[in-house]
Specification:
It contains 9 helices and 44 strands. The chain has about 800 residues and is mainly beta. The longest helix has 8 residues.
Length: about 800
Amino acid sequence: MIIRPTFGASAAIAVIACSSPALAQNGSDAQPGENGVEGEPVTLDEIVVIAPRLRGSVDAPQAPVAVLDEEEIAGFGAGSIAELVEQLAPQVGSGSGRGGGRPVFLLNGQRVSSYRELFNYPPEAIARVEVLPEEVALRFGYPATQRVVNFILKDNFSALTAEVEYGQPIDGGYATNEQEVSLAQISGRNRLNIALELEDSSGLTEAERGVSSAPMPVFGDDANPARFRSLVADTRDFALNGNWSTGLGEDGGGGSLSFNGAITRSDSVALAGLDTVTLTAPDGASAYRALYSAALGYGARVRDVQSNGFELGTAFSTRLGDWDLTATGKWTHSENRTRSDVGADTAALAAAAQAGAVAIGAPVGDLLAAGLIRPGGSELSRTNGENATSLVTLVGRPAELPGGEMTMTLTAGYDWQNVVGRNTRNPASASDLTRGDANAGVTLGIPITSRRAGFLDAVGDITLDLSGGARHLSDFGMLYSGSAGVNWGVTERLGLNASFNYREAAPSLSQLGAPRIVTVGATVFDFASGQTVLANLISGGNPDLVAERQGDWKFGANYDLPFLDRSRVIAEYFDETSKNVSSAFPILTPATEAAFPGRVIRDGAGNLVAIDQRPVTFAEQNGRSLRYGFDLSDRIAARDKDGAQKGGRGGGPGFGRNEGGGRWQLGFYHTIRFQQDVLVSDNGPRLDLLDGAALSGNPTARHQFEMNGGIFYEGIGLRLSGDYVGKSAIDGTLTGRDTTLTFDPIIRFDARIFVDLGQQDSLVEKWGFLDNSRVSLRIDNIFDAQQRVTDATGAVPVNYLPDFLDPAGTFFEIDFRKQF
């Protein structure tokens, strides 16, 4: 029997032509001849089964990392595609050190102009989800740094969905609430989706958690500074998103056209503490005072951030002869405004106290009324951005090789970006940066051997992927990229792959030219003193950054286990090297201060005053890691009223709404880092991030585990996810005394319990409104796990107190969702 796939949109068609009922015998077997003579060969007609590839699925030699059907999607209890992706984090996350961003998203196997084009669709509208490895991104015009997630929508679907949520920490202090209304309509290639989201979160202060990052004043009648420093900002968010798509030509056979638009607004207000001063009397007595008076209107410094965003996008796809053409374009406008109160000038007040003109213990109101304090006012920073992107891909099969058809993807695009920054405190730091990015590339998929084509099929299916690209940046010149990879389908279940990717990357415009901002009185752990201090932090852009060169090796294996409905084991090894790496300024360790002495400001006594945290360039960065794991899933059979199993193993077609049955799923992944280091400059030092060095306040752990799992049965579901990060440390011994910080291992679990009320017949009979509705309870950090950080004496530094690292702790959220 010969099975040939076809790429039509119709259902599977079996074409069987035969002249003998002996279908199981080979066409050249000896059969009685026309005259009844035994042994005369008779050739049977060929049996051809034409089986189509699932509409909307991705045609790539790389096997999917995970595939979910409608039953499995329902078992996640997600309210939107965005929420589903969040719950699929272990599967959609990349083991690559460059995979920290959002995955590449496809809709029905095609590129979209923006993730907003699909994120508000309800999961009930999805027929299938495919998660594919990073290399597949090359076929859609993206670098191979993130996994690819393809959502295949149902042909027909319509629903109006309303959802309300309320959440708060178990310890109280603040609360969140969210409301969302969305409309989704799908009729073949015609789609409409409109969604409105509102979210509000109240603030939380240090005093409400019983901690303080600032010293307490000497006099008891002074205000407690912890009441005026935020752990959680007061925020409000608004988003309106809409997209429309239609098929072109007869029955949509001429391609599709879609438009997407979004308006977003975010406001955030945080308290940045009180003005403080240390007053010294003529006799040498001193007092630390916090300057606050409600009567005089003298209060906390405030940091007010406002962000506005506008986005328009379009996508067009059609056939050009034997080639598939996809073109996407997007325009984004962003406005970011930050108003920060500046600390008051108290030099005149301190001088007056030194001279005995004012008493160091005088009431704060008297100190303020003395006219010896110069208010600091506020600084306003504005950053406006314009971003227009376009990309055209042309996919075809230009040649027939012995191993099958060669595939070719041609890409061409142009991106334009402009960032304008202004700061009232430092007008000289104003910036106006523009970048044009013309890019083009080609990707080839070359079949070497093929079981399907019968060419060297004894060794399996081998495909070679080659790609090359170039981009010209108006502010950086030419940048090049290229890759080579081989995929070997050893058997139907076992696949192996290896690839090398080279890429040149430029710093972002924000890294180059963001306006200079000074944050006054931020809490910083000073390794030189082993104390938590208040220092000014300088942020902004660095115009001296250079282009980065990346070279990455990846080796992978995947195996479909021969049991359960779906079970897969994967393993991936990464070896990544980067030259001239643009990075945020690292945490202030002794090694960092020695490497960047001009970035750290201290007074004559060695006290930390300020840190210039603008981006820096590292000479080299290296990483080697292994990520392996498994993903298992199977159906749970439905049972009748007498407890007997229905539908055979797994319930068969009995699973579904009002039909009983269910499913369970378990995913588990382990990451081992063998090397993670940074060469600061060509002359050193080399920082070993697995052995005491750090680039951020959280050092790099050698081991990390991720898991998610759940069970869904007859409308009731339970989901559980967990993360484990191993022990790590930041070495502080270079200061001449041991100021090392040790980070204990931490494991955190989140849970979600939900009930599809529409499947509970007794409830629906009493309250018909509950049909097509769901209630869920989400608990984050079930066991209130908090990172424990200790210094060499076993004490916890102030800014590493658990309530600073995770002020929410255990957080619960209740949600009600209904579809009309």
